[in-house]
Amino acid sequence: MVIRGEKVVLRPMTVDEIPIFYNWATQSDATHFWYEDGRVPAYEEFTRDWERHYFDGSEPEKGRCFVILVNDRPIGEVNYNDINREDNSVELDIIIAKDVDTRRGYGTDALKTLVKHLFQHLHIQLCWIEPVAKNARAVRAYEKAGFKTTKTFIANGVECNHMELRNA
Ligand SMILES: CC(C)(COP(=O)(O)OP(=O)(O)OC[C@H]1O[C@@H](n2cnc3c(N)ncnc32)[C@H](O)[C@@H]1OP(=O)(O)O)[C@@H](O)C(=O)NCCC(=O)NCCS
Hints:
8 strands; binds coenzyme A; 168 residues; Aminopeptidase; alpha+beta; globular; 8-stranded mixed beta sheet
């Protein structure tokens, strides 16, 4: 099963691809955006946080990772996390590994595509995402995907935006 966007295709990530995802997160052009404080996790810690259900689809209510593909080439990852069924809300994350693949509209399209899928097939009403405020490229991409900043907050001394997109 793949999910088709305008520029990208999302394919569920498999358990075999966890090491690739780990590399994207910890040893790519995107690493300092994901680990702002420079504290990059060891593989064991990473796989404790990113539990198996993200990759084997065994607990869709708890989250799922997708590979972002451009012309069949994997460029990064987008995911949703634990679904809150009290208000049908869910947090999203995204990473595009190489700088050359950024600023081409792929991140915006990947988010729009995942959000549409979550609204249509998992009865989600509200998606949210929390970039570091000074990550202007991320904030801009999320705004283009339809997210709006509803508040800012400080986490570990760093200002972050809380951005939301509601099912109209
Ligand atoms: C954040 C990310 C997902 C965005 O995806 P993307 O494909 O690069 O984004 P898009 O090309 O769709 O849009 C980027 C927008 O930001 C703009 N932009 C780029 N650099 C910018 C900067 N320094 N300041 C302001 N805007 C900037 C681009 O011009 C573009 O807007 P435009 O289309 O109006 O011109 C991707 O860059 C990424 O994964 N980066 C590394 C990891 C990361 O930051 N993850 C997010 C953690 S919350």
